[in-house]
Amino acid sequence: MTEERVNLRKRNKEAPVQNGHSQSEEERKPRIPEFAHRESNLTVLLENVGHIRAIYHIFVVILLMLLFDTVVFDLVERGKINVGLSAVAYGFGDVKRGAKIWLYELSCALAFYPAFRFFAAGAQLFKRNTVLQHIWTILGVLGLAAVQLALVLVPVWDLGKKHLAIASSVAVTCEMFRFAMKIHAVVATCGHRCYSGEPLPSFKQYLYFLFAPTLVYRDQYPRTKQIRWGKVVSHFVEVAAIVFYNSFLWERFILPYWSDYGKQPQVEAGTVVRGMFGCVLPGVISFLCGFYCLLHAWLNAFAEMLKFGDRLFYEDWWTMSQFSKYFRAWNRVVHSWLRDYIYMPLAPRAGRALSTLFVFIVSSLAHELILALSFGFFYPVLLIQFGVCGLLMVPLTTISGRRFPNALNLFMWFTFFLGNGILWSLYPMEYFARKNCPPSEDDSFFVPKSWSCPEIVLKPNWTFHNPILII
């Protein structure tokens, strides 16, 4: 094994010069296969490392304590037992309307397949006539654009016209983007087959891809031999538990600070600052729970049901000291799609820097659209955090992260705590300001209402006292 590593290093050092430039370190690394039989990092750690299992148990106990706190407090205070169902029911309100939107999105995704086969048949029919094939290609591009626009614009119009409950809206908008990205992946991967006559994906392959936990299309994926239904049930139980976990966090830590925001014309600055710092810890816990719920439990459940062998949906992002590596490791499912279908086609023409910038813009706008449609207002806090601050951190931590890995990992976690505290403060402030403040002619979807209502003031007779000055 040692001899192989020495030979690999020698080959890397002797790598040929291409186009006047030596190969970059990233290009010299042996490429990890896109799909292979692999378990998720946390699955391996939880099964083999007792320390990680202990941390998992700590989070379970915190959930139980929040449940006991909610039950006992409401029993003593109001004489009724509350297990968080009210917050869950409020978040997933109007499920019937959300289901209709999702079924429409699924119909658009399914309708794409026969249209794709029809285009391929036409491309073969006009193969010997260059002019007709060129016209057919233009019509195909317009048809693809029409399908994608119908898939995106109708849900956006429907959600913009009438607000849907937050959790239901998040679900249908995420599904909208997921289906749109899947369609693009099939076209980008198999589009050339329409002209070459190579076999197109069968409907069974396409249907499998629509629900497989990946956004990168392949005709075949590594498959497991059997479905472990016990694993499926345990993962879905984790998903349900985390939904209640977040509802408890909302009821116990967010509502007490912000539910009355906007009912009074003025609010003291100290109250706002205390609330923002009070939301830091629940914000980070929710951030970690959201990661575990979606990228581990949910995706692993579907991977198990579909016998999808590659479970590497994320890497050990929590150990990173460079933001560029963190963005790649945090969500490999979306990162692989952005890399294969946006970055790599663009990089040879626009260069690496502009291609990276464009990837960040696309990802930031998609995240912001999900939040805007879910909350019912445009407030680009996440857009600034991710698309501006996060992008700036990529070059700033590239060298320093390698030189001072421990310090930069500490700094990265500091930004996670601070950023989530801001997110869990500013969005609820705006949400309740629009709910509690009196209507105004200046109210707008794009202009934050919390900037003008309520007025944030300092305490009367407030003065600054120098802590260094000794009296």
TrEMBL record:
Composition bias, Basic and acidic residues: 23-32
Subcellular location, principal: endoplasmic reticulum
Chain intervals for the UniProt region annotation (Disordered): 1-32
Chain segments annotated as transmembrane: 54-76, 101-123, 135-157, 232-255, 275-299, 353-371, 377-396, 408-427
Subcellular location field: Endoplasmic reticulum membrane
Superkingdom per UniProt: Eukaryota
Keywords on record: Acyltransferase, Endoplasmic reticulum, Membrane, Transferase, Transmembrane, Transmembrane helix
UniProt membrane topology term: Multi-pass membrane protein
Similarity field: Belongs to the membrane-bound acyltransferase family. Sterol o-acyltransferase subfamily.
PANTHER family: O-ACYLTRANSFERASE, STEROL O-ACYLTRANSFERASE
Protein name per its UniProtKB record: O-acyltransferase
Organism from which the protein derives: Loxostege sticticalis (Beet webworm moth)
